[in-house]
């Protein structure tokens, strides 16, 4: 009910740009450009310092700061559901830069059930579905498989350090009972709306690999300002 009401009010009431506040537009052209494009022209590989063990290569469409940060939070925390489309298009561009061939399986990093309930929607899964749709329209075979869950309660990570986040998530993320078969279908690209320390993506990667899935990489809408930005030609030795 809450998600439906948010979508309805977004259609009938005047809105301001979620990024910069420009009136009468949910997302202005300038802020849309900061998110990136479906072709992934501005995507960069991001690597947090320190990087958690098991973190796959992560590609980010934008930097998590200023207008981009405001847009991501408006969608996730304030229920601006109409922003899922442009955020998904940006994520699709990051997925393309992962470089996997053939059909793709987009696996969202899971949020805690209580967090999803409080927000009234699963922000990451919604963006992932929009990204998969964008990829299919461009001719790429892609589907979303929400096969990860948190099997125990974890603390809110917002105020935790990178090491504390790793400890908080240790053993908490697992593949659902029906997810093992789905992971055999195609290379996995882990997706999330943002990456900070990389702990959530690393925990998700361990769970997928433990279940026999093959991870091609990870893609996010936004990466942290302090993360190193690697040229697309760089590869770790």
UniProtKB/TrEMBL annotation:
Residues 173-223 form the Phosphoribosyltransferase domain. It holds the Pfam family Pribosyltran. InterPro entries: ComF/GntX_DNA_util-trans (IPR051910), PRTase-like (IPR029057), PRTase_dom (IPR000836). Belongs to the ComF/GntX family. It comes from Streptomyces fildesensis. PANTHER family: DNA UTILIZATION PROTEIN YHGH (PTHR47505:SF1). This is ComF family protein. It comes from the Bacteria.
